């Protein structure tokens, strides 16, 4: 068998493996959606019982609004449950190319995917969303507008804040994982700092109310999140260099004539 044929078979095997893992992820996501339908109503009741939702009288402008509510909350539940599984499937896909200690190190990150996702949702819901609603309410009052919202509009506005922030909170974990599998390192992250800052500022301005204070309160935590990620990457990178050096010294001690 020629080398080209072996490479083609290797690529086909990798594609087949990737497709298999994607099918696993889709299956778990669908199962999460089914489970999310049972949690959708209590989550919805909690959201509308808290300010500022408890001060509004919501209207339904479409027969599908109720179905849309269930779908939104079910998807949020399914995504929060599926993200750790996605990380595990990614780990399982790349782990054959990792050393044993790298496999163990990266596997430990997976449970924190769920924790950071929930932390991001809480930050967005309890801190970002109240500021956004307060800003819009002030503008509406200045214009003399009566606030009469459709439930779908309200929840769409809320989810557009919560979901991006929850995903952004995964940044430290993603960078740690990519550093552990040697795709990223702190040197590259520092070179990318200006572009990363620009992207984070753009995201912060996009999901926060259009005033300087809100932009500042949202963007600064995102930048700190990036710098914290760089710090974690540096810690992992130093450990990698130390292990590589120890491995080289051990190899040279076992093969004293290999360097000559």
TrEMBL record:
Signal peptide residue numbers: none
Subcellular location: Cell membrane; Membrane
UniProt topology in membrane: Multi-pass membrane protein
Annotated TM spans: 22-48, 68-88, 109-133, 153-183, 195-212, 218-237
The entry's keywords: Cell membrane, Membrane, Protein transport, Translocation, Transmembrane, Transmembrane helix, Transport
Subunit structure and binding partners: Forms a complex with TatA.
Job of this protein: Part of the twin-arginine translocation (Tat) system that transports large folded proteins containing a characteristic twin-arginine motif in their signal peptide across membranes.
Similarity remark: Belongs to the TatC family.
Protein name per the record: Sec-independent protein translocase protein TatC
Gene that encodes the chain: tatC
